[in-house]
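FW: tagging you since you asked about this chain on Friday. Here's the raw sequence from the shared folder, copied in full. Didn't touch anything.
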Amino acid sequence: MQLDGSGFKALTSEEGMHFGNFSDDAKHYTHMYLGPEKTPSISLCAVGGGCNPVWAARNSIAEYGLRAPKYLEFKADDGTTLYGRLLLPPEGAASGKIPLIINIYGGPAAQMVRKGTPDAFDEILARKGFAIFAVDNRGTPGRDRKFQTAIRHEFGAIELKDQLTALDQLLAQYPQLDKDRVAIWGWSNGGSMTLYAMTHSERFKAGVAVAPVTSQLNYDTIYTERYMGLLKEDKAGYEQSDVTKAADKLHGALLLVHGTSDDNVHFQNSIQMIDALIKAGKQFRLMIYPNKTHSIAGKDARVHLFTMIVEHFERELK
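HL: got it, structure written out here
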């Protein structure tokens, strides 16, 4: 590659995710590979030459029964291509129409649709008879400037519009999916989008919001102002993105989850949402994890949380 960006040459060819760390002289690199159907591996490679394997996972993806999802394309209302993935239940796991769960992130910090190792929790849900869907709306990374800056000065509206547009196209393509039993769940910005979707749409029968930002006033200025600008310059945009102000519009069965020691999305976010929902007379379920940070890490907490998510969807969608 030249300094002007021209002359790109692919060093890898297998479908999947490739990560490289180059030596100081740029003649060698370590290559980490994650694919939807192949065992993760690390190799030491020479630019323009061969690769020598260094490490490979002991067990294959197939041994865990993980299946690659279907990778799909949709069109936003302005014609922009949106990328999605769908994992259907294995044969015999569902009877009749299949309930659908959307796993969302939707923000500037992460993509959901990447051709890496299949998601184990998606597979667990699929074996319970659910279909799992994800789509990267405008505002998510890995695309061009226009795509990433589409949400400038507002969080929520464009992201939800893209999610619903892709959902409609998905339901048209897969008539076995039940349009009346659609749920949504996400973590961090995905938790924020879950709350936004359940208060700005009536499409979702249930949802789980984990560690959500409920008001951009609560979040890091270096992140928030990058997309929202200064509060004094866009007060209306900040208010529009505040899901606590729409608590009275909550539709569907909500499970709200947060760790009390969250040092990223502070617990105050959920406290404000709880207060708003109570004042609006809205019933919801709440799970608090004492002394847990943003990741709610640890075997006990993780097993407890993901078991609760499964039970919530089985109760509300079946």
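FW: The two ends are 53 Å apart (CA to CA).
HL: agreed, and The chain has a mean pLDDT of 95.
FW: great, closing this out.
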